[in-house]
Amino acid sequence: MQTDFSLLIDGELVTGSGVLDVINPATGAVFARCPAAGRAELDRAVAAASRAAPAWRELGYPARAQIIGQLADALRDHQDSLAELLTREQGKPIGQSIAEIDRGAAGSEGMAKIEIPTETLVDNDKSLIELHYRPLGVVGIITPWNAPVNLALGPMVSALYTGNAVILKPSPYTPLTTLKLGELLKDLVPPGVVNVLAGGDELGQLMTEHPDIDKISFTGSVATGKKVFASAATTMKRLTLELGGNDPAIIMDDVDPKAIAKSVFFSSFVNSGQVCMAIKRIYAHESIYDALCDALVEEAGRARVGNGLDAETTLGPLQNKMQYDKVCELIEQTKLSGARILCGGEIPNEPGYFIPPTLVADISEDSRLVAEEQFGPIVPILKYSDLEDAISRANDTRFGLSGSVWTTDIERGKQVAARLEVGTAWVNMHRATSPVVPFGGAKESGLGRQYSHLGLKSYMEPEVISVAK
Ligand code: NAD
Questions:
Q1: What is the best residue among 276, 321, 353, 399 to mutate for testing ligand 1's pocket, by most ligand atoms within 8 Å of CB?
Q2: What do you get for the CA distance between the two ends of the chain, in Å?
Q3: Active site residue ranges
Q4: What DSSP string describes 343-407?
Q5: What is the arithmetic mean of pLDDT over 151-158?
Q6: 146: exposed, middle or buried (C-beta count within 10 Å: 0-12, 13-18, 19+)?
Q7: CB neighbour class for 262 (10 Å; exposed up to 12, middle 13-18, buried from 19)
Q8: What are phi and psi of 281, to 5 degrees?
Q9: What is the mean pLDDT of residues 398-419?
Q10: Cα 228 to ligand 1 centre (Å)
Q11: Which protein residue has the closest C-alpha to ligand 1 atom 17?
Q12: Closest ligand 1 atom, CA of 205?
């Protein structure tokens, strides 16, 4: 049992008033135990962050960018041990854990190069009016279990670079790599600037209610996002909500299904479908429908489901029992609905939360698999004959995270992409983020944007300074 984990509060590595047992989803067994925080630790962390914030703010962008660069170096120096721990707690294939840490390091460096200058709005004989941006103070960051490193680094680096202090709470299912991140930060930032508290859902709620936290950056499900929204209202906290999705991919009549199958399959099943911006509904034109189904089934046949620490594994287990049970039930229900299971659909009788990649054809639009966010390795392929109908079915949802259009006619692809009611629409790709490109959801998939100057400014209060001449 691995137990070498600590909370980070006010620059010190400490134990908590509770503990969390952490399960390896590839075995279903507890493999580690870490401390968990309650209200007392949260209050200490928030007080420390409030004390540390003014000096951190005064440090200025270049010095903060330099520290973020040191964090990126530290991530790379510890990449192997962090990636192994990430795979043990999260389940994803080791190569993807390494890539997550790599992307996190590069993304952090990228964000710390963005400039947020004071803007001159009016400069004439009568007045000078400028728009300044100042940090908010203390930012609470709450993350989910599917990509704990990346989803912590994005908001944390945004908050730190713009001059805020941070309280970071990972999911109780995957707290370990985030706690190790805290250990790296302990030696890089002044005490109190970053505090890392593992804890359950109730700790998240306490953060959203806390009067001395100025902003919450929350990544997680729509249902919890709505609770965070309501709770944050009592203290008028600033909010960024990065929530669930039900991304459509529209495959047009002019594509060669074989040429796009690998990319469409990977964008649907990466991390065993546990990605907010994975393809979750495939709309294929009737003229290529059967050929696309065949090509995707061929890709599924090449996938290797197994323990993420095995080098040949391409799809790991579901991350936790709750999600595993939910997806198993969805598969059973889909079978009963009369839809055609093209591949997968059989749950292996072995330890660990493994589900094979499952593709479903001839399924009705109002089935749960199409209407809900499945967040697992089961994806419906729906047929359309009229493009207008495909666009309207793609948009007929309360989700609006992202979507994609696949075609050889780029101009036509862009026109269709512009009609998707989403935060990001891709043409001939799906699932890409960059530190200089805003990411976030339309409709119930979120509020605000992460990354880019747009995301960074959401960690700041705009202040107009108006001078009479
Ligand atoms: P979740 O909403 O159950 O939990 C997320 C976090 O919120 C956890 O840390 C949890 O402890 C905390 N929490 C739970 N109840 C809370 C409350 N009342 N107040 C404050 N915090 C609370 O989500 P999950 O199951 O961990 O993650 C999966 C979901 O996250 C999926 O819907 C997925 O699409 C979404 N997601 C979105 C993005 C994005 O960028 N849009 C990225 C990754 C995941």
A1: 276
A2: 69
A3: 242, 276
A4: E-----SSSS-----EEEES--TTSHHHHS---SSEEEEEEES-HHHHHHHHH-SS--SEEEEE-
A5: 98
A6: buried
A7: middle
A8: -145, 130
A9: 98
A10: 10
A11: 205
A12: 19
